[in-house]
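Reviewers of the previous submission asked for a worked example of the structure-prediction workflow described in the proposal, so we include one complete record here. The input consisted solely of the amino acid sequence. No template or homolog information was supplied to the procedure at any stage.
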Amino acid sequence: MPTWKKILLEDDTIPASKITSGTFPNSYTFAGAISVDTINEKTANNGVAIDGLTIKDASVKSSTPIAARVHHNANQSISNVTFTALAFSSERYDTDAIHDTSTNNSRLTCKTAGKYSIQAVVNFDNNATGVRVVTILLNGTTTIAVESRNAVNGTNTSITISTDYDLAVNDYVEVQAYQSSGGNLNVISAGNYTPEFSMHRIA
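From that input alone, the workflow returned the following structure tokens.
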């Protein structure tokens, strides 16, 4: 199969000097900038891949998902009847500089605008009195998700919370914990499940 010396795209021509490798009908590598009006996918519904990005159905998707998941490596004391932002000292993964382990480590900050799936899991220490509440807070002021339940007698009280939300660049979300046991109560750090906080770009 011969190597192409140039490629015609609609009314545009990419000269041989721009093509650094590639053999018909496979992929081609180009040097320098090229300008074209239209690029059509070779196989229907697969989209067009350019430098790790897939362009499909008018949307651009990175080959590396935009996501972060963080956790805390110590118990955190929550004062009675006080909403408290949870700290997250460690990262399981972070593909877009969403989290900082030292500065404002309660926050996951959007660096690429889009729709995000946001989740958290929080376990409160064993205490049978009062209620337990977990919220997801946007930009320090707006509650975008709430989960609450009565304290469980004889074991830890676990709350899982999730929501999907459109985030702009530099929007940030936090997890807040609340309890009414009558005194201080720990959110416990255990295994790979509490406290955990994550967000993943889904669109």
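The longest strand covers residues 114-124. We consider this example representative of the routine output the project will generate in years two and three.
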